[in-house]
Trimethyllysine dioxygenase
Amino acid sequence: MEQVPLNPSRYPTVDYEEVMNSDEGVRKWTDNIYRWGFSLVDGSPATPEATEKLLERIAFIRHTHYGGFWDFTSDLSMKDMAYTTQELGAHTDTTYFTEPAGLQMFHVLSHTGGSGGASLLVDGFAAAQTLYREDPDAYNSLKTVLVNAHASGNEDVCIQPAAPFPILSHHPVTKELCRVQWNIEDRAARMDVDAATLVKWYDAARKFNEVLKRESMERWFQLKPGSPMIFDNWRMLHGRSEFTGKRRVCGAYINRDDFISRYLLLNKGREEVLGKI
Ligand SMILES: [Fe+2]
């Protein structure tokens, strides 16, 4: 696996104008996301309208019970921790959907009268690789034991996936790790396994949590107006530090299949893509 350089001035970045005005810009952008799990965009207007149009250069926005394109402050308008000022540990979003959101973007539009609110990314594939190296039994437990999740903070919603899922999902043919789903708040208590398997799973989960929290795994960003960040929600965990003041953030989800379609066609060309089907 390629390692992202740790110098923040070298983090994968594309230019807003290039993305908006050329498919070559979108090609570079989607290649960054596919390769590194995330990308920044430089020079975007700090408005929800421009951010939404920017996202639509990859694909249409995925709507959820939170709406389509969000533009929010910490007002607890939704009963979810994202809408508070609290610290959020590294997690993936929408584990409660049968198909979790593929990409997620955050654009900090303004932050006034306070400080904090740095954004965190942790490469879930790198963390899983570390777990595999240090404790293969724990890895196997997170690969095989199925968990449930739910979104039921709001009175009129109780979303659950069609089937339970492992924390570490593997491609059935290539056997490669293809998705990490880690969200302690959304995980359901119910697990349909015997007690011994359950105890082992909790040990494995504790170990994975410890790996995820290592300083060497964490990448912190102080996002600024004009520099939205987008990441692969099937690979990268995200979080943020506590903050004070008023912070306005907008963003949205994009489906994984639509992202991969755009990535493949722009980076490989239609002929090569169709040749492999
Ligand atoms: Fe989140």
